[in-house]
Amino acid sequence: MTPSAEELLAIARRYWREDKLYDFRLDHSPEFDRLEALWNEKLKEIDRWWALLGDLRKELPGYSIGDGTAPVNGCYGALVYPPREKALQRPQICWVVVGYLSILAPVYTVYCVRREFLGKQFRGAKAFLGPAPLELRDIAEVVAQRIEANYGATALPLEIAQTPVPLYVHFMEPPRTTLFHALFSSEPENVA
Predict the structure, then answer these.
(1) FRET pair for 153, CA 20 to 30 Å: which of 16, 53, 111, 144?
(2) Burial letters 98-136, b for 16+ CB under 10 A, else e
(3) Domain boundaries defined on the chain
(4) pLDDT by residue (tens digit) across 7-58?
């Protein structure tokens, strides 16, 4: 069962602040210390996440599977890139399927990022948090099924993920900050 927006906000408040009091200070906030302590525990179990990535490699042959885990965020991350031969051609637009498993709450999300290139030069990226484009839905479904099977997490509905929260998550500030930013990443398009 998916936790409510109120329950998820209560969880997020343990790890993110409602002010900038600790910006540019040498000491850490209590929230930062809690997030760091949680990551120290979760990193002891990183082999379990890497096993999930290995399962994705078997289930999605030909695709490049990357680890998008960044301990500054609140989640583990799986990145599914197009098949190697297509990636080598550097198309103008390249899609990446992203699966994030929150370490803060038993929820996950799968979304897509459109990356644009001009030749070999990266031009920009845009995250699409809604349903995956038709040609990527099968891949997104495999990622979702694998996260559910390996971790028992539930998908965070988009309407809850987009709930505004009064928290500062890295450089994401209210009123733009959402539960997505607090539970997963403040930069969903950043999937290099």
Answers:
(1) 16
(2) bbbbbbbbbbbbbbbbebeeeeeeeeebebbbeebeeeb
(3) 5-183
(4) 999 999 999 999 999 998 999 999 999 999 999 999 999 999 999 999 999 9
State the pLDDT confidence band at 192, using cuts at 50, 70 and 90.
confident
DSSP letter at 129 equals -
- Is the peptide bond preceding residue 175 cis, with omega within 30 degrees of 0? yes
**H-only helix segments in the chain:** 5-12, 30-42, 46-59, 84-88, 137-151, 158-161, 179-183
Q: Is 78 strand, coil or helix?
A: strand
Identity (one letter) of the amino acid at 24? F
Q: How far apart are CA 14 and CA 183, in angstroms?
A: 11
What is the DSSP track for 8-46? Answer: HHHHHTTTSBSS-TTTT-SSPPHHHHHHHHHHHHHGGGH
Among residues 150, 104, 131, 120, which one has the least CA distance to residue 11? 104
For the CA atoms of 34, 39, 40, 44, the dihedral, rounded to the nearest 10 degrees, stands at 150
pLDDT at 87 over 90: no
Query: Which two three-digit tokens encode residue 3?
Result: 């936790």
Q: What is the pLDDT of residues 125-149, one digit of tens each?
A: 999 999 999 999 999 999 999 999 9
- 140 strand-pairing partners: none
